[in-house]
What does this fold into?
Amino acid sequence: MTWVDVLMVLLRIVFAVVVPLLFVPIFVWLERRGASYIQDRSGPNRCHIGGITLFGLIQPIADAVKLIFKEDLTPRHIKNKFYFYIAPAILFSASLLTFAVIPFADSVEIGDKSYLMQAIPTDIGILWFLGIAGIAVYGIILAGWASHNKYSILGGLRASAQVISYEVPMGLALIGILICYGTVDLNQMVRTQSELLFGFLPNWGIFLQPFGFLLFMIAAIAESNRTPFDCAEGESEIVGGYHTEYSSMKFALFFMGEYVAMFVSSALIATLYFGGYNIPYVTTEMLRENSMLVAAILMVIVPVAFLAFIFWMHRTNRSHYTTADDKRTRETKILTWAFLVVMFGIQGLLGISILAGDAASQMLTVVIQIVVFLMKTFFFGFLYVWIRWTLPRFRYDQLQNLGWKYLLPLALLNIFITGAVVVCL
It folds into this structure.
């Protein structure tokens, strides 16, 4: 194994571990800002470091510091402390591992070798997701059982019944997309989605399987225990469910696991149904062959986007009341200079990529595809938030009825229709 092989392996693993963890505070911020927008209120905008609030993004950092230094309490009635301690780690690790097979960019050609842009380069793809995602429920069941608390046990039982109910429709919803693409390899699926359907429509899964997408989306929300499917931790019914007895970093692992699962589900939806890292009508080969033109276009788009954001920031990031020393005004000035420095740095890198050779064109393509992939993932994260603050929580019996009486038959019907159409065509 050469040093290039080692470097590429490390880069892929770092991306697969660091990016989901970085998106935890971003999704927490998105949750709070989205909730405040939907409920017509301000949301987090007071917590700051030296006057810098970053539009409320400092609040999740303060939460993390609080949870790290908070006293870690273990109730005396806990009899199986090993299982009590390991349960949050199981849930968090399973949520993080599911991202390892999702491709975040097309393969990179260095010399005579090709490197897949995913942490674990395997062709089992979606089967890895289904296998590892199912392990997360063991963490919830262990947490409920080891807590020796009736509310926690009820939460664990609810979570296990919920996962069993929605794993089946989720797997059946995926069969339709597997029939269409003829593979379980996520890389191959994304490459197929770069083609055109009927000569003018992107060959995305949403156009081939619109009904399957709806079924998968509902099941994915239920899998991640998000509202309206959060019966396992329903505060109004069972206090906090399976994590009632947890505090400090053990609770933080449950909290982070939910948002990591939300990120992975969003990334998988983008990969299966919305082209993954692909840009509509633009293939990887087109980006690499026209890298100079792409870099020149970005050198125009990037300053316009940055300047538009700076203009918006000057208009909105200020107090509604006249104050002698408005911290938001100082923050706006500091952020303006910071964004200008970043903008000129990006412009310089784009200029270098124009002058460099094939390696620079490949790296530019990878960066563009990663940005596109993360933007799609962020959009579906917002969709999760939108659904949470729009729909009320289902009752437990309604949740089971939806899974077994409606989603399961509809998923089977979708498989039958998809198979019939494929055979006829």
In short: The CA atoms of residues 61 and 367 lie 27 Å apart.
